[in-house]
Structures are given as structure tokens and as C-alpha cells.
Design goal:
The complex is a heterodimer of chains A (283) and B (341). Chain A has 283 residues and is an alpha/beta fold. Chain A contains 10 helices and 8 strands. The model of chain A has no long low-confidence stretch (mean pLDDT 96). Classes of the chains: A alpha/beta (283), B alpha/beta (341).
Amino acid sequence: MSTLINPVEPFLRADRMPHIWCPGCGIGTTVNCFARALVESKLPLDKVAVVSGIGCTGRVAGYIHLDSFHTTHGRAIPFATGLKLANPDLHVVVYSGDGDLIAIGGNHFIHAARRNVDITVICVNNFTYGMTGGQVTPTTPLGAIATTSPYGCFERPFNLPFLAESSGAVYVARWTAYHVRHIAHAMVEAFQKKGFSFIEILSPCPTLYQRRNKMGDGLDTMRFYKQHSVIKNGADTREVDISLQGDIIVGKFVDIERPTLQQAMDQQLRQTLRDRYAGGGGN
Amino acid sequence: MEHFASRIPTVGGVFLQMEDELASSIAIVGAAWGGAKVFTVTSGPGFSLMMEHLGYAAMTETPLVLVDVQRGGPSTGLPTLPGQADMMQARWGSHGDYEIIALCPNSPQECFNLTIDAFNLAEEYRSPVLVMMDECVGHMTEKVVIPPAEEIHLFPRRYTSLPPSEYLPFRPGPDGIPEMAKAGDGYRAEVTGLTHDEHGYPAMNWQAQQKLVSRLVGKIRNNVDRITRWEEKELEDADVAVVAYGITSRVAERAVQMARAEGLPVGLLRPVVVWPFPEKRIRELASRVRAFVVVEMNYGQMVHEVERCAAGKARTVLLGHGGGTVHEPEGILEAIREAVA
């Protein structure tokens, strides 16, 4: 008798299952894509490290059977910066949510993009702080209800692809949890990209976001993503804002070349110190 | 720090000025797990920002060194004038239960020596270690003897020699301290600031909390005699012990000399490792001196430790100072005279 094994199982810490995510949540879907992208990209798995912050998506690192770091709230990116500088052979992937990466960690996000740190940042954007009960975040669309915006969000949200591009990211893509093949493909591209690569993945939070905003359950949200996503590769990131019920522009928006932090550091120090430069990073 | 920035590229390392102290204090934790020896430096408000990652480093048992050059506070306070008012923050500044190691140099030579010691203690106990300077010591210029590199003892990182299949990242060794594995070596460890079991997996129950936190606290507490260190001057026949650390200890030493010239039986105890506090020595002294005069550039911090350890057996007097400048030796002398009388 043969036993069927889920192809992503070797990438997960099976002894930590069941996971904490709610039915209909999109985070698990993205993890599935991540595992498939690891297979496809043929990265040496012992050299892949996953760093998360705090929150529902912050739990991803802990479920993935790689070197995995569950850090403090908002600080996954600077942790990853230190990890990468100390050990440049690593492929460092930051995997966290919108509240973590863009609110409390927003400063680190723009600075890592500016420096072009050679890491991949995957932001699962569910427009809310799920783990703490559904508070408003810097990506909550105008008018959306959250526990801390009970009469509708009145703060203009960040447009993440635009924020990433204008801060200096060399690869920027957005997909939804519906676009599983596109996500996996974008991840493969991001892993191969030298520099700060950023993927935003819109994901349902049926328990706290969709329910409060009367948008149905996880399946309804998938239907919404299917009907309202418009693939526009190369779109001007200034024009990809998200509204509560409007179309969602998805695609690969940015794919450029620019020296990474490590390359720029090496070049500058070699140029000024010449043979006195002992080489940075590594151990 | 500025010297480090100019020197480190020539000896094979990295300096990076991060966007803020939250970033620098977590970037070094990441770099430590990547295999590097790491430190960061700050003063006053930056130290407050670093508290979150002091706790994270304690919880994840990450060896690192953090230097705080103390200024007057609270808040932005007195840049860049001296203070010693972060001593209790050093001990208790991050939330939750943990023990900390903190060293307190009083000269440039000691800044050199104690920083080496700090790195070694960080590796030995897998703990963040603090070097608590003050602005005077931090800016001071004095002769420093730097020994040949081969004469400097270094405590190596406790890397595991087990194969990945047998390794548990937070299983303590016989001394209560687990072996480390760095990222990229195939161990695929999970590291979290959540309460965790020996696998490194989050474990949300009181049993796991008790097991982990009692070990974290115990690995320092059970080794207090090995870690703590102090210097004594003229305490053999003293009726009064002056207790001072950092730059204040040098002013206090002058006052002790002046008092001795007057024939007053007084000596100086200078904690060099301030945390863990030299509790046992204070208890011994309390049974034979009449009083402790605690001189510090704050309105009363380490004096609480001295008073606690003296336990009523000897009087404890605080000679505090809000910072901005050091004490005058004459003022300390006056306090000594009153304590002797």
C-alpha cells in the first residue's frame, strides 16, 4: 500500500500542527505557495532562513521547517538585515503581516528598501490586526470597519507597492490569495532577485475583517478576488491604491537592477581602503 | 563607535548605522544567529528603546554586548553630561523576569578590559551583557595598554557538535546552558521570544514558563560568585565603607584618601560587575562596619541594593547627585565624617 504525502509536508514542522489560523484565512495558502516556490527555485534549504515578526502571519516562521526566527513586533526586517550581513550565504525571507511590517515596522521597511538589503519581504495584507482582534492598520481601506475604526476608517491607507518602489525596492509584485500560481512564481523570482524584493499578498481574514465589513466568508472573498482582480504587469505603482469594494490591480510592477547593500558597501570600502579592506560580512 | 566604524572593515567585520535603536538592537540579534560576535552602543533614550531587545536576547539566549554611556535623565535629559541613573533600568528595564550581567568601568583601560570580559560572559552564559559607562568614562582620554591579541582570552561560542538529528536548540547542558547552532548550518532551529520548550517551540502553559524562566534566571543566579567582581581599598580596618562605581568611584577614592589623612577609618568598595550585585560581600561588611556611604550620580538606585544587603546591621547613607557633573570629593568627605561620628 502506498502512502500519499502532501508535497509541502517536508517544508513544515508537522509536529507543530494544527496551526492557529482560522478557517478561510489565506495565510496557509501563501505558505503552500512558499513551499512550492522553494521546490521550484531549488534553493539549498539549509541556506534559507525565514524571519517573522508578530501576528497571525508572524507565526509563519515557526511552522516552516527551516532556520526560523519569530522575532519582536515590527522588527523582522532589521533582524533579517543583521542575519544577512553576518551570513551572506543565506537566503533570508521576511514573512509577516501588514500591521507588523508597515505600522510598527514601517520605518524599518523603508530603510531596508532604501539600502537594498538582499532579502525577500513577503507581506500578507489582510487589512487588519487579526491576532489581537481586528484593529485598524495602515492598509485598512477608507471606510472599512475595524474594532478601532468602528465608524469606518478615515485615514488614507498606504499603497504598499508604491511605498516599496519609492523607497528603493528592486522587485515589487502584488497578488491575492486566489492567485496561487502567480504567488509561487513571484516568490521564485523574488528569491532569485538580488536586493530588496517585495511581494504583497492580499488575504482574507474572514473572522475579523470580512465579517465586520459584511464581505462574506473566505470563499466569498476568493470569488471577490477572482472577479475584481485586474492583472496589470508593469502598472504605475502610484495608481494601484486599494479601495474597500473596487478593483484590485495585481501583477509584477517593478523589476530593476541596483547594487545591494552588500555590493555597495564592498564597492565603497574597496575603493577607499583598497587592499586594507578585509571584506565585510561572513564569519 | 566611530573608531570601530573606521577600523572594522580592515579586520573583517561590518559596521552599519541603523535607522534607530530598535533596529540596531535587533539587527545584532540577527547577526549573532548568523554567526557573528555583536555589540551596539547607545546613551539615555536609545537605551530605553533597546529594552525590548534586551528582553528578546535574554529569552532567546543570544550572546551580545550592549554599551550604555549614561547621561543625566529622564528623557533626553543632559546630552552629553554624565549621569548614573540607568543602573536600575539595566537590571529591570525590559518586561518580564530575567537576570542580567552588567559591568561598570571607571577608566579607559577598564573600558577595554571589561568589554572583552563582557563578550566572554555573553558567550559563557548565552546572555546579553551590559557595559554601563557614564559620560566621563566614555569621553575620557587616558593611557590604555592593549596586550597582544594572542594574550587575550576569548570564550568561544557554545556551538553544538551534535548532528542536526540529535540537536534540540534549547535543551540545557549540565550547566543549564544550551548549545547554539547558527543559521545556515543545517540545524533548522526555531527561535522565538515566546515561552518555548527545548525544541524552541512556543509552549503556552505555566509548566513551560516555569521550566524555561527558572533556568534563564538560574544560569546567572547559580553562578553569582563566578560572575560578580569588585575592588576594595583600605577596607581592612574600616568602620565606614564608601560604595561607588564608574567615574564616581574615582572621586570617592580621593575622598577616602582625604579622610584617611584625617585618620578616619574608611575604605572603598567599588562594584566592577554591578549586576549581579556583590551581595555576599556587602553582607559580610555589614556585620563589621558602622555605615555604608553610597555615592552615585542619581537620587538613589544602587543604594537600595546596599541597604537591602546591609539588612539593618549597618547604617546606609546615600550621597546622591542628579548628574551633569561629578561629585566634589569634599562633599563625600563631609558625608564620611558624619558617618564615622
